[in-house]
């Protein structure tokens, strides 16, 4: 059996019967995970559990047809489900027909945004969601998810809140109504999931819990003793429905649509690229955006809610031997057969068991170790994590990601507007120019100030650089030469050029000559266009610092075995 002539679903040229069997095993393995997870995550999203199964059919087919990743397993996911609940519960009661209608609109809009971003090749936008922001957000959201499931595990009714403090207050106020049989089912489910995972991660623990809980409730008629169950689950495939796209609804949901689209794509891209790196192939971010967009748009017409890549299922898909997206097709077909033939068996499924599946699944998303590492290596990144985490936890998940991104961009702009400008000294033993404040062996040269600018120069940071240069000149007497090492400058704008010209002209009258070394090609081009070749050619024609100092007889006699820049580097062409 060979598929060499036609290669849909990212099939490789050597796809054969053995590869098909690997996809078959992986697809069925993911199916076993997806059925209980899909139903649990739908409940987390405030939707009927069956909608988790709807979201595991058509979207998987569509994604498989258009994706560049061979291993990403899409479908319902914890963070996206919580975002759906947070987005829509403010406007309708979870589980109501109005709520479901708004979720379908949300799904369509998420897909449309992802598709549009993919078409205009805007996949780079996710780079503005930094790792500290994403990690802090995910950790806080996981805690909110876990606490939000405690009411199902305890068998008490609480209001839907997205802030941890209000969730805890609700639980405390209703703790006296705890239903002990429900607690036993929930606790037993959690213990079973944890123990089976420790024994062997490949054991389908969630499916086992699902089956055992159904049998237990049915056998002892626990639903008649106060245990909340899923109840009737519609069989068959959902009818085609058209989302009610009104301007009012679209405007109401727009902010969270952007958030869900970007976070969903970022999660998908992170896991797909990690697996692709291991398997030595490339993932196209824009193609992934288009595939996710089309899958969500199609899903919105068949009662699905937003899908994204799943870390756990994608990892299992890869570990199970999948070699193409045919595994996703097999998973979708299996879920479809379940909808057609087996939904009646879910009647006695207790919601406590679904809550236990969610609770155990999200524990691994709480990542405090990363926060410690960030504070150790780069404290500012640690504070980005803390701000994102705190806002998500205390104010709400719809604000966490936005404030986190805004704060990280603020710090980025702040750093960019105050680049390092270091004074250099000459290290005789190593024949190098080094930071005077870091290297004790570095010494100033006679009558000379030397600085290195470690950033591109533009309108927002040139004033900072100018101030440092002026301060150095003011605080040193008898300076005749101001030498600027431009090796760290990759670009320069017109405002910066004008400021440098003004400083040079001013200090030329005071007997201080400015000289520039290590000009990169792009910077030199800009200076040439600004007529520096005519006005300041003698100040900018130096490829290295040694070259500059020798030609101008600066600093006395030195050993000039220069090692930092060589003349054959194209970046420093005159």
TrEMBL record:
<feature type="domain" description="STAS">
    <location>
        <begin position="438"/>
        <end position="552"/>
    </location>
</feature>
<protein>
    <submittedName>
        <fullName>Sodium-independent anion transporter</fullName>
    </submittedName>
</protein>
<feature type="transmembrane region" description="Helical">
    <location>
        <begin position="99"/>
        <end position="124"/>
    </location>
</feature>
<feature type="transmembrane region" description="Helical">
    <location>
        <begin position="136"/>
        <end position="155"/>
    </location>
</feature>
<dbReference type="Pfam" id="PF00916">
    <property type="entry name" value="Sulfate_transp"/>
</dbReference>
<feature type="transmembrane region" description="Helical">
    <location>
        <begin position="203"/>
        <end position="222"/>
    </location>
</feature>
<dbReference type="InterPro" id="IPR011547">
    <property type="entry name" value="SLC26A/SulP_dom"/>
</dbReference>
<dbReference type="InterPro" id="IPR036513">
    <property type="entry name" value="STAS_dom_sf"/>
</dbReference>
<dbReference type="GO" id="GO:0016020">
    <property type="term" value="C:membrane"/>
</dbReference>
<dbReference type="GO" id="GO:0055085">
    <property type="term" value="P:transmembrane transport"/>
</dbReference>
<keyword id="KW-1133">Transmembrane helix</keyword>
<dbReference type="InterPro" id="IPR001902">
    <property type="entry name" value="SLC26A/SulP_fam"/>
</dbReference>
<feature type="transmembrane region" description="Helical">
    <location>
        <begin position="323"/>
        <end position="342"/>
    </location>
</feature>
<feature type="transmembrane region" description="Helical">
    <location>
        <begin position="175"/>
        <end position="196"/>
    </location>
</feature>
<feature type="transmembrane region" description="Helical">
    <location>
        <begin position="386"/>
        <end position="413"/>
    </location>
</feature>
<dbReference type="InterPro" id="IPR002645">
    <property type="entry name" value="STAS_dom"/>
</dbReference>
<feature type="transmembrane region" description="Helical">
    <location>
        <begin position="20"/>
        <end position="44"/>
    </location>
</feature>
<feature type="transmembrane region" description="Helical">
    <location>
        <begin position="250"/>
        <end position="270"/>
    </location>
</feature>
<feature type="transmembrane region" description="Helical">
    <location>
        <begin position="347"/>
        <end position="366"/>
    </location>
</feature>
<feature type="transmembrane region" description="Helical">
    <location>
        <begin position="291"/>
        <end position="311"/>
    </location>
</feature>
<feature type="transmembrane region" description="Helical">
    <location>
        <begin position="73"/>
        <end position="93"/>
    </location>
</feature>
<keyword id="KW-0472">Membrane</keyword>
<feature type="transmembrane region" description="Helical">
    <location>
        <begin position="50"/>
        <end position="66"/>
    </location>
</feature>
<dbReference type="Pfam" id="PF01740">
    <property type="entry name" value="STAS"/>
</dbReference>
<keyword id="KW-0812">Transmembrane</keyword>
């Amino acid at each position: 059996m060979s598929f060499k002539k036609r290669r849909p679903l990212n099939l490789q040229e050597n796809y054969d019967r053995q590869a098909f069997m690997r996809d078959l095993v992986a697809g069925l393995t993911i199916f076993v995970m997806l059925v209980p997870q899909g139903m649990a995550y739908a409940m987390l999203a405030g939707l009927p559990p069956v909608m988790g199964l709807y979201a595991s059919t058509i979207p998987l087919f569509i994604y498989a047809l258009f994706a560049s990743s061979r291993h990403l397993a899409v479908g319902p996911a914890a963070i996206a489900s919580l975002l759906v609940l947070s987005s829509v519960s403010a406007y309708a009661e979870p589980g109501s027909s109005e709520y479901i209608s708004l979720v379908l609109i949300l799904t369509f809009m998420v897909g449309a945004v992802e598709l549009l971003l993919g078409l205009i090749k805007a996949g780079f936008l996710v780079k503005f969601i930094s790792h500290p922001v994403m990690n802090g957000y995910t950790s806080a959201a996981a805690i909110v998810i876990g606490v939000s499931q405690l009411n199902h595990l305890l068998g008490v009714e609480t209001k839907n809140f997205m802030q941890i403090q209000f969730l805890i207050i609700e639980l405390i106020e209703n703790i006296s109504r705890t239903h002990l049989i429900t607690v036993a089912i929930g606790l037993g489910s959690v213990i079973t999931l944890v123990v089976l995972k420790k024994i062997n991660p490949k054991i389908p623990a969630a499916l086992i819990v699902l089956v055992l809980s159904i049998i237990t409730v049915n056998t002892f008629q626990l639903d008649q003793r106060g245990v909340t169950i899923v109840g009737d689950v519609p069989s068959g495939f959902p009818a085609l429905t058209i989302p009610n796209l009104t301007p009012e609804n679209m405007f109401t949901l727009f902010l969270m649509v952007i958030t869900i689209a970007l976070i969903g794509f970022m999660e998908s891209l992170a896991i797909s690229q990690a697996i692709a790196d291991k398997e030595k192939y490339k993932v196209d971010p824009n193609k992934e955006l288009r595939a996710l967009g089309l899958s969500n748009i199609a899903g919105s017409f068949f009662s699905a809610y937003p899908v994204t890549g799943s870390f756990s299922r994608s990892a299992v898909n890869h570990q199970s031997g999948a070699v193409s997206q045919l595994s996703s097709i097999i998973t979708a077909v299996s879920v479809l057969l379940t909808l057609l033939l087996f939904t009646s068996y879910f009647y006695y499924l207790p919601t406590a068991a679904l809550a236990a599946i969610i609770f155990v699944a999200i524990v691994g998303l709480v990542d405090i170790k990363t926060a410690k590492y960030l504070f150790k290596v780069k404290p500012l990144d640690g504070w980005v994590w803390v701000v994102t985490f705190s806002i998500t936890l205390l104010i709400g998940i719809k604000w966490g990601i936005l404030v986190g991104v805004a704060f990280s961009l603020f710090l980025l702009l702040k750093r960019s507007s105050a680049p390092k400008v270091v004074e250099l000294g000459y290290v005789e033993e190593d024949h190098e120019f080094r930071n005077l404040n870091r290297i004790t062996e570095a010494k100033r040269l006679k009558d000379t100030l030397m600085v290195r600018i470690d950033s591109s120069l533009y309108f927002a940071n040139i004033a900072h650089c100018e101030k440092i240069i002026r301060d150095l000149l003011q605080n040193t007497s008898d300076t005749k030469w101001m030498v600027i090492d431009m090796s760290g400058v990759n670009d320069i704008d017109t405002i910066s050029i004008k400021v440098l010209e003004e400083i040079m002209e001013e200090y030329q009258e005071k007997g201080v000559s400015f000289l520039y070394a290590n000009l990169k090609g792009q910077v030199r081009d800009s200076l040439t266009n600004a007529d520096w070749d005519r006005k300041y050619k003698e100040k900018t024609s130096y490829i290295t610092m040694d070259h500059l100092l020798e030609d101008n007889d600066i600093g006395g006699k030195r050993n000039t075995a220069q090692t930092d820049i060589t003349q054959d580097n194209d970046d420093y062409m005159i």
